[in-house]
Amino acid sequence: MALLENIQNNHAAFLDTLQxxxxxxxxxxxxxxxxxFGFPTKKDEEYKYTNLREITxxxxxxxxxxxxxxxKEQIAELxxxxxxxxxxxxxxxxxHKELSKISIENVELLSFNYALNDxxxxxxxxxxxxxxxxQNLAFTNLNTAYCKMGFFLKVPKNVVIQKPxxxxxxxxxxxxxxxYNTRNLLIAESGSKIEVIESHHNFDDTFVFxxxxxxxxxxxxxxxxxxxxxxxxxxxxxxxxxxxxQERDSLTTVNTFTFGGKLVRNNLDFIHNGxxxxxxxxxxxxxxxxxxxxxxxxxxxxxxxxxSYQNYKGIYxxxxxxxxxxxxxxxxxxxxxxxxxxxxxxLLDEGATIDSKPQLEIFADDVKCSHGCTxxxxxxxxxxxxxxxxxxxxxxxxxxxxxxxxxxxxxxDIEPLRVKISKLLAEKLExxxxxxxxx
Length: 439
Known about the structure:
This protein is of the alpha/beta class. It has helices at about 1-15, 25-35, 55, 70-80, 110-115, 120-130, 140-145, 380-385, 395-405, 415-430, 435-439, and strands spanning about 85-90, 95, 110, 150-155, 165-170, 180-190, 195-200, 210-220, 225-230, 235-245, 250-260, 265-270, 280-285, 290-300, 305-315, 320-330, 340-345, 355, 360, 370-375.
């Protein structure tokens, strides 16, 4: 494997570039675990439908060129049309303050690399870093071994951040395939509120492989929303792991909107650690050609009186391939659990495929748990009804597909993001209309 050889040859050189020596032991231990497990193959049950050879057989540069030519105008084109957001811009692994806008106060917001170099944050990293990330997974170990880009955000007790924060990860001016390991850490203390939007953008024709790990800690009565907008180029690969741990009376949402990328794998784990917790996972996927998007979710109900909702919608065109594997685990003591899981898919072309596997493992006896999956095509009767009223075939299809995706958009509180998702849906469906035009 080309990537495996890269890793073997680059680790010592990578450590020499870092100043935060207190992580060296963690990095070496993580790399040792990675070599023990190796890259997942289709023989592994969790990767049964996703072949990673396209990614792992390529060579990558572990030390991206820092120089870039990204302008403020190019950054503006990536925005959602928002006027009052804050944003953070990373280019080629480096934070660029001159292209960022941060106006929020009373929070600790640092680049991950800077936080690792600041001794006063050592206790925070000792208590939080890698504490909920699954250390038996190859790519989380690989990330721990190589991460240095990303951000750390701590929202103090009862602080409500009114402005969403949009985080841009950009790769540009690279003449070789490039390997990035992004690491994010969000701590929302009791009574706080925060919303984050994350997007990745490859401006080159060379391949970019991003291996991302995010850890979210939501404390009592806090609310944390994380929105992933995935609309990258066909020379981009994404391996994303997000872990969210919630305390009592908290609410955490992760929305994943996937419209681009050659191969995208989203792994999402929620861990309940108190009563009256609410967890929301929503996803909309629309892809074409030979793209592959794989959603793997898991909710660990460990305490009573908690609720979780998973709602994933997929629209597949061309020879694209979708995968959904959603799991709900309910421990014996987690009585009065309410868990809902739904995956609905539409195949628009004969070459498109979906493998869906919703799962429940319930050890409590007083619960309300349901799961379901549908795979089909557009309703011909509904299509005929609309066309009989003078609506073109493309517009009629768009109306039905917008309606199909609508309920996965219901809990988007950020209006510019909702509008952006609507426009991307229209763009992918190749119609000159948006959600607002239809409804």
